[in-house]
Every structure is written in structure tokens, then in C-alpha cells.
Backbone:
């Protein structure tokens, strides 16, 4: 069986080198996920573009974290949960939000909890929402653009979560301290 490789700038396909150089400039290193994605220059660019669009969408830092981590935890991504824990800290998201997402416990506000519940239903029901979920989502102040932006975040997370499962991507050194495994009690 052929394993997926974590490329460096030197080993990456020519069409991925510039993107990896941008990653190095942005992060001071090439994240292992970017190194794996580099095998497919189009997938690397798609992932990075989706990320940029999502962080500039309709959600604030807390809400971005809720969407990302809800999907990461649901998909049981050993790489993205720790990475987004560190990213949430950099974004100054309160640890109570991150801990609740990682541990699948109730979030500190109704609005964030509704966002998590809606995101989970979208993931689990392949984009189908009950009328009750929609009504609750809109009643806490969200709009149609927010529903669509959940799909944008999900698109990004499908790429990273699924690739990390295929590649068994090692967690980057800076995020190892946030290691995570899905609790048996939550299955």
C-alpha cells in the first residue's frame, strides 16, 4: 500500500511549490496538512481558497470556531481538532467554548449552541434541515447567508478531515499539546 507523502517545498510538485512557500511565510513552517495536500496542486489551492473565503464570511471568531470544531469533532479528525484548538487560542476564543466543542458539552450561549446543532444536522443529514431546526436557527438571529456559510466551512473541513484520515497526518509540533481523541462515551 502506498502512503500519502508529506511534501516539503523541495519535494512538492512544481505547481504546489509557490503555495507551500506562501504557507511557510504565513506560518513560519509548512503545516503537515499543506504538505500532504501539495500532492494535488488543485486540492491545495481549493483548500486554501475555501479557508480564506470562510474566515471572511459572515461569522465572528467564536462562530467560526463552532462551525470548524463541530465538524472536526463529528468527523473525528485527530489533526484538525488540535490545530483548531490552537487557532482558537490565537483568535482569542474563550477556552470554555473550545472545551465544550472538544468534549461535546453544552456551549455557553444559546446562539452558539444553536449554531452547533444546526451544523451537526447539516453534516449528519447531508444538508437537510428540519423546519424546527431552521426556525430555531433564525430565531436566535442567524440568516440564510449563515446557513450557506456553514456549507462553505463544511466544504473546507471535508477536504482537511478526509485527507487527514487518508494520510494519518501527524499533528504539527505547535499543536501536539492540544491532542484530542473522541470520547468513547460520546459515540
Residues:
Amino acid at each position: 500500500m502506498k502512503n500519502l507523502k508529506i511534501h516539503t517545498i523541495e519535494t512538492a510538485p512544481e505547481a504546489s511549490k509557490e503555495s507551500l512557500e506562501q504557507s511557510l511565510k504565513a506560518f513560519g513552517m509548512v503545516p503537515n496538512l499543506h504538505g500532504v495536500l501539495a500532492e494535488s496542486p488543485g486540492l491545495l489551492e481549493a483548500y486554501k481558497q475555501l479557508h480564506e473565503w470562510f474566515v471572511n464570511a459572515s461569522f465572528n471568531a467564536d462562530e467560526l470556531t463552532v462551525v470548524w470544531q463541530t465538524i472536526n469533532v463529528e468527523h473525528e479528525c485527530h489533526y484538525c481538532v488540535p490545530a483548531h484548538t490552537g487557532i482558537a487560542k490565537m483568535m482569542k476564543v474563550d477556552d470554555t467554548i473550545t472545551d465544550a466543542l472538544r468534549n461535546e458539552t453544552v456551549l455557553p450561549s444559546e446562539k452558539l449552541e444553536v449554531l452547533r446543532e444546526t451544523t451537526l444536522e447539516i453534516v449528519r443529514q447531508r444538508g437537510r434541515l428540519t423546519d424546527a431546526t431552521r426556525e430555531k436557527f433564525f430565531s436566535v438571529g442567524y440568516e440564510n447567508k449563515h446557513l450557506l456559510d456553514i456549507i462553505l466551512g463544511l466544504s473546507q473541513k471535508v477536504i482537511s478531515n478526509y485527507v487527514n484520515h487518508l494520510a494519518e497526518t501527524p499533528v504539527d509540533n505547535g499543536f501536539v499539546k492540544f491532542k484530542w481523541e473522541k470520547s468513547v462515551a460520546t459515540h
The longest helix spans residues 144-167. The chain is about 65% helix and 0% strand.
